[in-house]
TrEMBL record:
Biased composition (Polar residues): 1-20
Chain residue ranges for the region called Disordered: 1-22
Stated name of the protein: GRIP domain-containing protein
Superkingdom, taxonomy of origin: Eukaryota
Length: 208
């Protein structure tokens, strides 16, 4: 009788152990799936942010070309006007149209640069201190925007474009060198996974 009771107890114990092992295996599989899902989610979000940043950068590159060309045409017309090579009334109308268009392009360019700076800050996981620094520069940038197309032209006389890019670059000086190079078209693709490492190193070098 005791032997039968002992056998029954042992059988129940083995069954309980087997059930616990099965449950542990199920939990382990679910945890593995959860980790995989989280990794895929983070990857998808990162890819989406990178795609948005790259799209903005392409738009900025296109707009920079438009600004450069409009400035070239406007400079040519101004030379003709000084030389008297075309009717004054016609030149005046064309010049006003080009200056108006260039002014609109410049404002749009400013807004896109601000948007891109914020997107890149998210993509590259800026710290709260870095984000605050960038936002402070953006605020300063917005408050001290150019007085109009005429001042833009005066600043750009050296090479037709240096004044524009110089003014914008100075307002984003809070961005580290690695980001600034990509931001102004120095690279050919969006920042890679090593950008964060480079940014932190550049920041440390600046503070040294």
């Amino acid at each position: 009788m005791k032997t039968e009771h002992s056998t029954a107890v042992q059988s129940k114990a083995r069954s309980a152990l087997s059930s616990a092992s099965e449950h542990e295996a199920i939990v382990a599989r679910l945890e593995a799936k959860l980790r995989q899902s989280e990794a895929e989610y983070r990857s998808a979000r990162s890819a989406k942010r990178d795609a948005e940043a790259e799209k903005l950068r392409a738009q900025l590159a296109s707009l920079r070309k438009m600004l450069k060309e409009s400035h070239r045409v406007l400079s040519h017309l101004m030379k003709q006007e000084r030389r008297g090579g075309a009717p004054q009334a016609e030149l005046a109308v064309t010049r006003r149209d080009l200056e108006r268009q260039q002014g609109l392009n410049a404002v749009y360019l400013k807004n896109e640069h601000i948007r891109l700076a914020r997107v890149l800050g998210t993509v590259l996981s800026f710290s709260p201190e870095e984000t605050a620094k960038v936002e402070a520069r953006i605020a300063e940038y917005s408050e001290s925007w150019w007085g109009g197309p005429a001042s833009l032209l005066r600043d750009s006389q050296a090479d037709g474009y240096a004044g524009l890019t110089g003014s914008l670059t100075e307002t984003i000086t809070a961005l580290p060198t690695a980001l600034s190079s990509w931001f102004w078209g120095g690279g050919t693709a969006a920042p890679a996974a090593t950008s964060r490492y480079l940014l932190l190193n550049n920041k440390d070098a600046t503070n040294a």
